[in-house]
């Protein structure tokens, strides 16, 4: 469309008026003032060719995001990647290749594309609005030049004069959904113009506009949304406040007052393992978390089930089950005999069959702080070489193997620490395989006394834990609505056909009424010939004509029925004198 | 889990898959034979036409394959050749490739002996015995293949698209089935070697490289969105497969048409079985439009599912990136068809690039890129 606007503009300004916009316009550039420059740039930006170029550029620009690790997905992998590739890792970072989708260049492309889109849609919408309110275009002089053309003859005895015939045809076309204007109905050559399929263009406009809607919705989600993570051991309760999260990512415009203080308690977590198929024996096939939720502290409690693919929605957020594992329950007494720590310890998954690592930090132990690091195995096996592994994900032979340390854990200076890592630099080992005391190996119900009277550790049992992601995205509903609108518009735009029909009648000297009609499609329309045939049939019935009368209609498409083929070729090559050029479907280009 | 695993069904399924692959192989040979034979027959007609250059010859050739176009050509071989060159080279650049089906007929005779099928791709009253055998065999193959897919589904107690093995076997089935369905409407038998060949490759790859016994789905895939999202993705991919082949042929055909029109020798005789570049372009546009809508749904349903499973509807996961790239490339293709200077050959290239992205997304991304979608069962 804008291309067409282009053309009009060009023909009116001979300075740039030429079929080769880029090259010639460049040459003419110095002559342009700043205003013309802007206008020129705008026409360029909103041209179909630019839109196409930007679209393809967008596709290319999206690719690196799948080749390099991305920060938003996993920042630690990016850090590691830069470390592993010292020669070019940093360079990629300056090129924003770890943040492709928020990078300056990616944003520039899609913003330009959307500006172009607006610049394209707005004039197009105005033009279409006008077209919808104006009458169908005037009747062409030579209907026979149209891609579909045919004639009918109403015999004199039927008593249908030219003006009646045109009104009859108008009625038919109206019923078929055309907007019709009859011209000259009391003249010698009455005619009508008809048009239908305005929804095609409407669909196109709705589609493109909805894309803007999707983009804006996504932006709103980024501004006002938030997300966070939390690990819940069986029995734990999460309350939706900032301190309740293990990790929290606010949107740009997030306010903590947005958080509704609902609570969710993990009552029980069940896993079903595959015990049937050989190749996947022991793989989890079902996760199910029984939770108790409260919309706010005073609301009644509700029992719900949280599963993968089946989030719980609460207080405007959705809560997703994203991970799970085991949490051995331990009790640790310090050298003074007091309980310094008691409760479940979240074990981090490391390998097959829930082979997990365990870190226990006991800052409250006296006189020395204690630290433990080791592994938890739900079904412990030891190979002949002394390597232990987990033989099954279920708790058939749970085992905790630990090394122990004492000293200053470094927690008191307030520097944040990873709870899953124990920094042993400043600690003194107490138990380890290479020490005289050896390592600690515990099964449920057993306990161990640390050397040098540092205390005891007992392994009381095992609980399960789950990891949940909590998301709030206020833009997402709108994104969905706009996406659905876009699809609806797309389907309309691709499957509604915009067609024009003209009919002209006249009375022959011998009293017969001659009818000729022509059809023209705007845009792609492979069913135009079918429409011509249908119209012909309707008209024939309307005037009760002999269906086989008259000269054959001409169509520049191939005949529809296979039987026509051998003869059809001859029939259609006959009038192939019809110039092919200007009669093709009109295109907005 | 409502159903248990039925290993016997799984074994039946594998047997059916092998049988289907075998049947397809024979069908492939028949399709190839058809191409070879028809191009030979066509060359013979050419010779005859060159000798008998009086109008009467049109009558003769009406009985032999691809009568209409060739007959016309024979009748006015010399005249139309120079005509066509004139018409096409004299007109605006790229004139013959404008996406307007209604110019086909006018261009048809003009383009002379290089075109053998018309825009409808309905051939004249010719009989191509090998092609019929090939289609019959393909139907037999697809029935066996269907049995394989169904038994796989029964064996696993769920829809059979949960890992690479199942994507490949079911995907190949859909590709062939869609091809056969389109055959009802249009004579696309010239695509037979390609589609059936691809199905064979997919089945062999599935059995050799990606074999996986029947098993349960990992929890991440247990959702009705798997049924909706993946089935539409596979269907659209099957359609993209057809248009890919057509676009590739379109490039070859248009090159050939140009060469012949410029007076060059026609070295690609078998391409006479293939419709004109313009017809190919128009039909592949229509199929691409359907497939693009399908892909739009794939993208949307994928996003909805991602929201359900992972809590965000879009996260630029590798699989999401490539689905997006494919969508944008085909949107570009649709745009190209409405942009001056970008129809014809360039649009065909975009269609080809789009399909290469589909293949890349399915093979390389599934296997070598780590992301949330890494459950291809490897
Ligand atoms: C966000 C980027 C865009 C996407 C994804 C997109 C996608 C599409 C698609 C899929 C179609 C074909 C379906 C239909 O006709 O409705 C289409 C058509 C069209 N687009 Fe876009 N488009 C984008 C941007 C633009 C821009 C910037 C322009 C204007 C310069 C534009 C102008 C058009 C026009 C005029 C058509 C109709 C073509 C015809 O007559 O067949 N589009 N677009």
Automatic annotation (TrEMBL), chain A:
Stretches with biased composition (Polar residues): 552-566
GO CC, one annotated term: membrane
Which stretches of sequence are listed as region Disordered? 1-22, 540-589
- Does the keyword section mention Acetylation? no
Basic and acidic residues compositional bias, start-end: 1-11
Record membrane topology? Multi-pass membrane protein
> Per the record, where are the segments of Low complexity compositional bias?
567-589
Q: Name one Pfam family in it.
A: ResB
* Biological processes per GO annotation: cytochrome complex assembly
Highest taxon of source = Bacteria
**Major site of localization recorded for this protein:** membrane
Residue stretches making up the ResB-like domain: 48-531
Report the transmembrane regions from the record: 51-68, 104-126, 205-226, 477-496
| Key words, A-Z | Cytochrome c-type biogenesis, Membrane, Transmembrane, Transmembrane helix
InterPro entries, alphabetized: Cyt_c_bgen_Ccs1/CcsB/ResB (IPR023494), ResB-like_domain (IPR007816)
Establish whether keyword DNA-binding is in the entry.
Answer: no
Give the location in the cell: Membrane
Specify the protein name: Cytochrome c biogenesis protein
Q: What is the lineage of its organism?
A: Bacteria, Bacillati, Actinomycetota, Actinomycetes, Micrococcales
């Amino acid at each position: 469309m804008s291309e067409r606007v282009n053309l009009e503009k060009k023909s009116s300004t001979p300075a740039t008026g030429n079929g080769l916009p880029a090259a010639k316009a460049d040459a003419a550039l110095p002559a342009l003032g700043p205003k013309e420059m802007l206008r020129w740039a705008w026409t360029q930006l909103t041209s179909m060719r630019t839109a196409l170029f930007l679209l393809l550029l967008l596709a290319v620009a999206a690719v690196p995001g799948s080749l390099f690790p991305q920060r938003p997905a996993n920042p630690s992998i990016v850090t590691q990647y830069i470390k592993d590739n010292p020669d070019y890792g940093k360079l990629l970072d300056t090129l924003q290749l770890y943040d492709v989708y928020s990078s300056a260049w990616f944003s520039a492309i899609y913003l330009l594309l959307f500006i172009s889109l607006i610049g394209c849609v707005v004039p197009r919408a105005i033009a279409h609005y006008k077209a919808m309110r104006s009458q169908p275009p005037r009747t062409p002089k030579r209907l026979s030049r149209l891609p579909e053309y045919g004639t009918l003859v109403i015999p004199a005895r039927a008593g249908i004069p030219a003006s009646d015939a045109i009104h009859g045809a108008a009625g038919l076309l109206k019923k078929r959904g055309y907007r019709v204007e009859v011209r000259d109905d009391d003249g010698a050559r009455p005619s009508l113009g008809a048009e239908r399929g305005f929804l095609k263009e409407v669909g196109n406009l709705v589609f493109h506009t909805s894309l803007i809607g999707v983009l804006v919705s996504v932006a709103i989600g980024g501004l006002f949304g938030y997300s966070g993570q939390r690990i819940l051991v069986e029995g734990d309760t999460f309350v939706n406040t900032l301190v309740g999260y293990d990790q929290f990512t606010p949107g740009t415009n997030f306010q903590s007052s947005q958080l509704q203080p609902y609570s969710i308690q993990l009552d029980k977590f069940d896993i079903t393992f595959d015990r049937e198929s050989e190749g996947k024996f022991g793989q989890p096939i079902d996760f199910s978390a029984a939770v108790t939720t409260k919309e706010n502290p005073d609301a009644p409690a509700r029992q719900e089930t949280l599963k993968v693919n089946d989030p719980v929605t609460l207080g405007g957020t959705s809560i997703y089950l994203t991970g799970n594992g085991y949490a051995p329950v331990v009790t640790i007494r310090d050298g003074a005999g007091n309980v310094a720590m008691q409760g479940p310890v979240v074990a981090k998954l490391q390998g097959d069959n829930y082979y997990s690592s365990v870190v226990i930090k006991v800052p409250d132990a006296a006189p020395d702080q204690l630290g433990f690091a080791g592994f938890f195995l739900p079904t412990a096996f030891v190979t002949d070489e002394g390597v232990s592994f987990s033989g099954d994900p279920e708790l058939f032979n749970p085992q905790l193997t630990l090394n122990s340390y004492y000293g200053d854990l470094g927690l008191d200076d307030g520097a944040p620490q990873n709870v899953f890592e124990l920094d042993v630099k400043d600690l003194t080992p107490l138990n380890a395989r290479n020490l005289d005391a050896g390592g600690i190996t515990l099964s449920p119900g057993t306990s161990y006394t640390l050397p040098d009277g540092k205390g005891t550790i007992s392994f009381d049992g095992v609980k399960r834990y789950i990891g949940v992601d909590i998301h709030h995205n206020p833009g997402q509903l709108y994104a969905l609505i706009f996406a659905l609108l876009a699809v609806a518009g797309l389907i309309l735009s691709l499957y509604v056909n915009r067609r024009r029909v003209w009919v002209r009648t006249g009375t022959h000297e011998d009293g017969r009424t001659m009818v000729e009609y022509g059809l023209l499609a705007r845009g792609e329309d492979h069913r135009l010939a079918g429409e011509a045939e249908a119209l012909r049939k309707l008209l024939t019935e309307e005037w009760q004509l002999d269906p086989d009368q008259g000269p054959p209609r001409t169509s520049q498409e191939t005949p529809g029925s296979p039987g026509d083929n051998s003869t059809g070729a001859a029939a259609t090559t006959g009038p192939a004198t019809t110039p092919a050029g200007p009669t093709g479907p009109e295109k907005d280009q | 889990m409502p159903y248990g695993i039925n290993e016997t069904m799984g074994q039946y399924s594998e047997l059916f898959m092998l049988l289907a692959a075998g049947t397809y192989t024979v069908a492939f040979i028949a399709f190839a034979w058809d191409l070879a034979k028809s191009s030979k027959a066509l060359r013979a007609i050419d010779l005859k036409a060159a000798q008998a250059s009086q109008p009467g010859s049109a009558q003769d050739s009406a009985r032999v394959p691809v009568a209409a176009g060739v007959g016309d050509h024979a009748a006015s071989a010399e005249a139309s050749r120079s005509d066509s060159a004139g018409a096409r080279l004299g007109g605006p650049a790229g004139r013959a490739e404008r996406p307007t089906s209604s110019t086909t007929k006018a261009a048809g005779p003009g383009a002379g002996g290089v075109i053998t099928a018309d825009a409808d791709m309905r051939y004249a009253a010719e009989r191509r015995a090998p092609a019929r055998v090939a289609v019959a065999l393909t139907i037999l193959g697809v029935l066996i293949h269907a049995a394989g897919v169904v038994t796989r589904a029964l064996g696993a107690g769920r829809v059979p698209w949960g890992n690479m093995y199942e994507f490949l076997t079911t995907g190949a089935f859909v590709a062939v089935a869609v091809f056969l369905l389109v055959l009802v409407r249009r004579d696309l038998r010239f695509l037979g070697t390609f589609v059936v060949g691809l199905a064979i490759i997919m089945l062999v790859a599935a059995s050799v490289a990606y074999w996986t016994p029947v098993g349960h789905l990992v929890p991440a895939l247990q959702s009705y969105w798997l049924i909706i999202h993946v089935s539409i993705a596979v269907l659209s991919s099957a359609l993209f497969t057809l248009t890919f082949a057509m676009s590739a042929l379109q490039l070859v055909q248009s090159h050939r048409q140009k060469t012949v029109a410029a007076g060059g020798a026609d070295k690609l005789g078998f391409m006479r079985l293939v419709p004109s570049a313009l017809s190919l372009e128009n039909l592949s546009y229509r199929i691409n439009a359907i497939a693009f809508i399908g892909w739009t749904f794939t993208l949307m349903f994928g996003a909805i599912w991602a929201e359900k499973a992972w809590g965000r509807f879009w996260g630029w996961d590798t699989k999401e990136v490539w689905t997006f790239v494919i969508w944008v490339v085909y949107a570009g293709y649709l745009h190209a068809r409405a942009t001056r200077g970008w129809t014809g050959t360039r649009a065909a290239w975009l269609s080809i690039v789009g399909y290469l992205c589909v293949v890349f997304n399915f093979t390389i991304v599934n296997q070598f890129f780590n992301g949330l979608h890494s459950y291809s069962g490897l």
